[in-house]
Each structure stands twice: as C-alpha cells, then as structure tokens.
Amino acid sequence: MNEVRLHIESLDAFKNRTMAVAARLDRGEHRKGKVHLSFESMEALLRVVTANRWLLLRCLRGTGPSSIRALARALGRDYRGVHADVVALIEAGLVTRDEAGKIRVPWSRITAEMALDVAA
Q1: C-alpha span between 101 and 74 (Å, rounded)
Q2: Among 7, 20, 35, 105, which has the highest number of CB atoms less than 10 A from its own CB?
Q3: What is 3-113's CATH topology?
Q4: CB-based contact 74:117 (threshold 8 Å)
Q5: What does the pLDDT look like over 89-111, one tens digit per residue?
Q6: What residue ranges in 1-120 does DSSP mark as E strands?
Q7: Where along the chain do its domains lie?
Q8: Can you count the helices (H) and strands (E) in the chain?
Q9: β-sheet with 35-39: strand ranges across
C-alpha cells in the first residue's frame, strides 16, 4: 500500500525530522520511511485539500490515469477549474503526471492527522 500522511508541523519540527532522515542516509541507512506532506497550519492544508479536490482525488483513484479533459467530464466540472485543481494537487505532491501526460494518484491511502491543541 502506498500511503501519504498529511499533517500540521512547525518549521522547526520539519527541519528536525528532515535532519534526522539526512543523518540516517549519511550513515548508510536506506530504510523506506513513510511519506509525509507537512503543512504550516490547518488552514494551509484546507486551502490545498478542498472538497472539490478531494472528490477529484477519489474519482481519479477510481478511474486510474486520465487526461484532465476526461477527468473534468467524469466529474461534471469545467475544464479550467479541474486544470487549476490538478496543478495545485501536483504542486502539493498528491497527484503526479506520467510519461504519457496522464494524471494519476500514486497513493492508495491518504491519512490526515489533525490535533486541535497543536499550533504550528
């Protein structure tokens, strides 16, 4: 299962986690870790993963690799809006484009960790 974990993380926590991974790599430890996508705040996460984009991810995961035009048709949405959503999801790392130019979701599971008492 390919899983990505979305969470809120301060810049200091992100730097510490990144440095720990770099130190393991420097020691020759090449274990495969979980994929993390960190956001500076819950508001930032929700700007990326909107309701429409979540539906897009679910649709794309169900249909498999697709063109943006076919995806817009499947969603019953305007091409320009779907294109803008795909660009935002690619920039966030939640969607990729394959060699043929098709859009795909490389994750079978997306988990989000949200704590009410954590401020980034």
Answers
A1: 18
A2: 105
A3: Arc Repressor Mutant, subunit A (1.10.10)
A4: no
A5: 999 999 999 999 999 999 988 88
A6: 3-8, 35-39, 96-97, 103-104, 109-113
A7: 3-113
A8: 5, 5
A9: 35-39, 3-8, 109-113
d(C-alpha 95, C-alpha 63), whole Å: 14
Residue pLDDT, tens place only, 66-96: 999 999 999 999 999 999 999 999 999 999 9
Residues 6+ apart with CB under 8 A from 16: none
Q: Given the structure tokens 């009410």, which residue do they identify? A: 116
State which amino acid sits at residue 10.
Answer: S
- Per-residue pLDDT tens digits for 30-60: 777 678 888 888 888 999 999 999 999 999 9
Residue 18 has pLDDT above 70, yes or no: yes
Identify any residues that bridge with 36 across adjacent strands, giving them in sequence order.
5
Quick one: tokens of 115?
């704590």
